[in-house]
């Protein structure tokens, strides 16, 4: 028998899959597809970041650095050295994971503001390297990235493909791939959360001292989740590079890191499906507020501020709690 929490998460995964299946019926043009594909890739990235922030209680203000490293490793490996995309993504994830382990061991000994500053510094260092190594990365001007090549099949947003006898466009093919990747990212995160590793992470979040007393190797688990979240970012960064076809050091910028962490906080720390909602909202808001022109940034900030004031636990946890409370009241009234 599945426990109640696992049943809830499995139900959430099924609902997410149904939404992704139905959504193309409401996407009217390639721009809509491109926006949703970007949402899916970034949502998968913050699902990994949520493991670190929401479950282990460790902050990271430089996570876009790992996203950028994955993007540039894939771009350089495929564009400069002619690798296929899959080996580039896998090797890139191993390299970025190793870097995350090397930098994570010392900085994760820090706490609070000191940890925030250390992760921020890591992100800045990566961004500076990507900006300055012109011969390798193209510097501030960026570099082109070839189309995604999986098993000899090139996936371009401009192409036409046949899937089970049905002809689809390049952006539709990318949508299918991004949806599968997002579902896989969520599935892995949910399984990790319910595993002994997930329980150890939650104990670290609750109290490192108490976790250490009962035998949890806090340094080991903090490093492990830091590496896992960095691998998420690396793989998604590589896919993002292939989808965009061109990357600049902006993918590793401080602004991108803040966007990631804001998505986690807005959607609900510790809520896997909540952070997906946070990613969707923050990607859609600029489109919705575009008509406000110079007031766009002010409106954007005002909406975030009001959300955090009235929904401090995040969008999805607050909405879920409100619906549950309403249902209990209704059930009580009927009784």
User: Care to count the β-strands?
Assistant: 6
Write down the CATH topology of the largest domain: ABC transporter involved in vitamin B12 uptake, BtuC
The percent range for strand residues is: 5-15%
Helix content: over 70%
**Number of alpha- plus pi-helical segments:** 14
**Whole-angstrom Rg:** 20 Å
Q: Averaging pLDDT over every residue, what do you get?
A: 89
| Assembly state of the chains shown | single chain
Distance between the termini: 29 Å
- Helix/strand structural class: mainly alpha
What is the string of SSEs from the N terminus onward?
Answer: HHHHHHEEEEEHHHHEHHHH
The main sheet comes to: 2 strands, antiparallel
Runs in which pLDDT lies below 50 for 5 or more consecutive residues are none
Shape-level CATH architecture of the largest domain: Orthogonal Bundle
> Briefly, what CATH class of the largest domain?
Mainly Alpha
Q: Tally the structural domains.
A: 2
Strand order of the largest sheet: 1-6
Shape: globular
Characterize the structure shown:
- The structure is a single chain.
- The radius of gyration is 20 Å and the shape is globular.
- Helix 2 (about 30-55) packs across helix 11.
- About 75% of the residues lie in helices and about 5% in strands.
- It has two domains: about 5-280, ABC transporter involved in vitamin B12 uptake, BtuC; about 290-335, no CATH class.
- It has 14 helices and six strands.
- The protein has helices spanning about 5-20, 30-55, 65-80, 85-105, 110-130, 135, 170-195, 195-205, 210-215, 220-245, 255-265, 270-290, 295-310, 315-335, and strands at about 145, 150, 155, 160-165, 165-170, 245.
- A two-stranded antiparallel ribbon has the order 1-6. Strands 2-3 form a two-stranded antiparallel sheet.
- The model has no long low-confidence stretch (mean pLDDT about 90).
- By secondary structure, the chain is mainly alpha-helical.
- The two termini are about 30 Å apart.
- The longest helix has 27 residues, at about 220-245.
- A hairpin with a 2-residue loop joins strand 2 (about 150) and strand 3 (about 155).
